[in-house]
Amino acid sequence: MGERTVSDIINETCQAIFVAMKEQFLKVPSSENDWLKVADEFYTKWNYPCCVGALDGKHIAIQQPADTGSEFFNYKHFFSVLLLALVDANYKFLYVDVGATGRAGDAGVFLDSSLKKALDTKTLRLPAPQNIEGITTKICYHIVGDDAFPLRKDIMKPYPHRSLDKPKRIFNYRLSRARRVVENAFGILANRFRVFLTTIKLHPDKVVDIILAACCNCLHNFMVEQNKNNYISVQDFEDVEHLNFTNGQWRGDPQLCGLQTNSSRNSTTNAKNQHTELTNYFLSASGSVPWQEYMCGLK
């Protein structure tokens, strides 16, 4: 068969996979109970309370589309489309926004996303703020992200890495431990679907079809559900005492693209207060874990 025929077959297959599998394997939680299940798994697996997902973005390298100038050119100096994803405690994608041009950056994609709109309009149906032992005020259910995202009551991010005292170092460790699931989801995805280690020489619309259907959403989530132990075996590991951390196999692959780390500093007083409350919680008898000082280099 000719190259054009093969290309069309692949594109049509990707579209068909997405249509057939999206309802079962890519569903944003739609009720408070669904979000509570996500949060319970974050607390059980990663010792982080009231977390409903880890958010991050990844650049998918593409060949420069014709007549687009620098529109798809990103800060890492290659052409890309952006994948913004919310991931649960088991490395499954809960929500994706894909197809923005590379120069947009994580923060820009989030600002224009349906996820932000749902957070702003309270239509995501997150549970009501919860009382947590060791915290005097109720804590909002929230997403964890890196410094690219704004600090809000529904999004927590690390403190800037400048002259951090003990409480802030511990907070950053505890948040990053929960946030690693999204880094690992991207790493597993690219490690298993090697097309993401190349520069994809297709029109951006077709790249979106590949990301949505063939890999990122349906097949990735399908494999996590159906063959989890083998499929995710390239992820980061902690030993049973949580004192030794081993980088996942995917982190050693020089072909894997880095993640955007743009900074957004604006935040509300309420968000800052929640930031502080969680920081104090991770130091309290109720919220601390035995290994956190060791992992922060404080012991």
Automatic annotation (TrEMBL):
Keyword Secreted: no
Protein name, per record: Uncharacterized protein
GO molecular function: hydrolase activity; metal ion binding; nuclease activity
InterPro entries: HARBI1-like (IPR045249), HARBI1_dom (IPR027806)
Cofactor field: a divalent metal cation
Cellular compartments annotated: Nucleus
Source organism, top-level taxon: Eukaryota
Species in which this protein is naturally found: Paramuricea clavata (Red gorgonian)
One term under GO cellular component: nucleus
Similarity field: Belongs to the HARBI1 family.
Chief location bin: nucleus
Keywords from the named record: Hydrolase, Metal-binding, Nuclease, Nucleus
